[in-house]
Design brief:
CATH architecture of the largest domain in chain A: 3-Layer(aba) Sandwich
Order of helices and strands of chain B: HHEHEHEHEHHHHH
Shape of chain A: globular
Order of helices and strands of chain A: EHEEHEHHHEHEHEE
Number of strands of chain A: 8
Helix content of chain A: 25-40%
Oligomer: heterodimer
Shape of chain B: elongated
Radius of gyration of chain B: 33 Å
Number of domains of chain B: 2
Strand order of the largest sheet of chain B: 2-3-1-4
């Protein structure tokens, strides 16, 4: 058994809330996001997600729960052989929906994140910021109740970081609970929100 | 103008050509390598299936040839008219149930049979050469053979009946052994094919680990991901299988045509007879079609199992 990454961590994320998850590198931010996204299982303890014990979900239920959560990975995880449009549409496509039913929705979202001119571009030709916005759009297309973003501004310059933050704030105002894992203090200072601080595996809430 | 462009964009499918069912990347190096592995293994398996069918068919023909014929040998003796004995033996033969034809070899034909051993200039008139009667039979019963033999020995003292039983049982044993070896080789080739194709498929699925992961994280059900891979790899398996199987089939057809061609050439008769045996019958073609389907199935199943294993690892 490996070392304990998180311990005595107890918190709740309210619907339609906005919070930053912060702490030094290696504090366990990504691990905590993975636990919330059900891609890691806790060795002990309880995670209640949308009123259900997350550790007791069956395999087919996990997929349904994941569709209620959007995630933005630090390394984007876009599929290089699919266009920006196809990458963003993927969460709807895997539901078996007909393309004509979601096409306007995807285009609108791409325009909203500023990628209206890049719908046919493949990820290898996108800049870091464009990839990040495509990744955010993919997380949002399924209208998630909870959005988790892991260092979403880690690969972009400060002006773009501010623009991305505005995007998250707009999303929050439209009714989605948002958790942004970041160690960028400047970014957090730009928006007054609750801060969950992780340090050496323990969690402290501020604000 | 912009509004019109937007309308056009909203109406037209934006999924790139052929990618509706292609969540997996096409034309990857690992994908081409997998098709090549499947094609080579299908070719070998199809060749083996064809060879087994040919061996089996030939052995059945041998057996049928041997068991559909009997030989009566009439030995000459002093004070006995051999031509009269031959006539009597043929008379008895015609009354045996199951006999379809009987013909005595002439003295000249009997001498000809010995020529390879004794030479052309040898005077065979001085030797007591037995005379032979070739008897064609069909579904003759054991009891009839016993009665036949008894009737001959009672009425034609110099006659003996050879029903080729010893020769037939030896040829049956040999043919069965060859067929058994053929099937054993086929099973080994199929096992090797299954192993190599499933390992190659696993490697290719592993190369697409990122796709499995992304689909999983965007909320695709495990069954959906497995189906996407299974469908993709079924097509890959069919492509490779059809390619390898077709090449093997063409090879058999080519040998058969070569036999026909050689038959028209002077001196090519023996080789033509040999090559003609390489012609496949319906069972052979069906066997090759089965091999192609089986390999495609193994490829699809391996991908499905590997995807489920990958998903268990991700979780």
């Amino acid at each position: 058994m490996g070392s304990e990454v998180l311990r005595d961590v107890s918190f709740s994320i309210e619907p339609k809330s906005f919070q930053f998850l912060t702490g030094p590198s290696g504090a366990g931010k990504t691990s905590l996001l993975c636990l919330l996204f059900l891609s890691l299982r806790p060795t002990r303890g309880l995670i209640t997600l949308f009123g259900r014990d997350a550790t007791r979900l069956r395999a087919h239920e996990v997929a349904a729960f994941r569709r209620r959560i959007g995630i933005v990975f630090q390394d984007f995880r876009l599929l290089d052989h699919l266009t920006t449009y196809e990458n963003v549409a993927l969460p709807l496509r895997v539901l078996g929906r007909d393309e004509s039913s979601y096409r306007p929705e995807v285009i609108e979202l791409l325009k909203w994140v500023g990628l209206g001119e890049r719908i046919h571009a493949l990820p290898p030709v996108l800049s870091g910021g464009e990839k990040q916005r495509a990744s955010i759009a993919r997380a949002l297309i399924g209208r998630p109740e909870l959005l988790l973003a892991d260092e979403p501004t880690g690969n972009v310059d400060p002006p773009l970081a501010r623009r991305l933050l505005r995007l998250f704030v707009e999303l929050h105002k439209s009714g989605t609970a948002v958790v942004i894992a970041t160690h960028d203090v400047t970014l957090m200072d730009q928006y007054d929100a609750r801060r969950l601080v992780l340090n050496e595996g323990r969690l402290y809430a501020e604000g | 103008m912009e509004a019109r462009l937007n309308q056009e964009q909203n109406r037209r499918s934006l999924i790139t050509e052929n990618s509706l069912y292609r969540i997996l990347p096409r034309d990857t190096v690992t994908g081409h390598a997998l098709v090549a592995v499947i094609a080579i293994m299908s070719f070998l398996a199809a060749l083996t299936v064809g060879a087994v069918q040919i061996v089996r068919t030939t052995s059945i023909e041998w057996r049928a040839d041997v068991t559909s014929e009997m030989t009566i040998q009439v030995r000459p003796a002093e004070n006995r008219d051999i031509e009269e004995e031959l006539r009597k033996a043929i008379e008895i033969t015609k009354n045996v149930p199951g006999v379809t034809a009987a013909r005595a070899y002439t003295k000249h034909e009997a001498d000809k049979l010995l020529e390879p051993w004794l030479g052309a200039g040898f005077d065979l008139g001085t030797l007591p050469i037995p005379r032979l009667i070739k008897v064609r039979v069909q579904n003759i019963g054991d009891a009839d053979v016993v009665n036949f033999r008894k009737a001959l020995s009672e009425n034609v003292p110099g006659a003996t009946l050879d029903d080729h039983r010893n020769w037939s049982s030896r040829i049956t044993t040999t043919a069965n052994a060859i067929t058994f070896i053929g099937f054993a080789v086929l099973i080994l080739v199929l096992i090797t094919t299954v192993l190599s194709v499933s390992f190659a498929t696993r490697g290719t699925v592993a190369a697409n680990h990122a796709v499995v992961e992304v689909l999983h994280f965007v909320g695709a059900r495990n069954s959906y991901i497995a189906n996407v891979f299974q469908r993709h790899f079924l097509i890959v398996g069919l492509k490779g299988g059809v390619f390898g199987g077709t090449i093997a089939t063409l090879l058999f057809v080519l040998l058969h045509f070569a036999a026909d061609l050689l038959n028209t050439l002077p001196g090519g008769g023996d080789t033509a007879v040999f090559l003609r045996q390489f012609g496949l019958n319906r069972q052979g073609y069906l066997g090759i079609a089965f091999v192609i389907g089986f390999i495609a199935f193994v490829t699809a199943l391996s991908s499905r199992i590997t995807v489920h294993r990958t998903l268990r690892m991700i979780d």
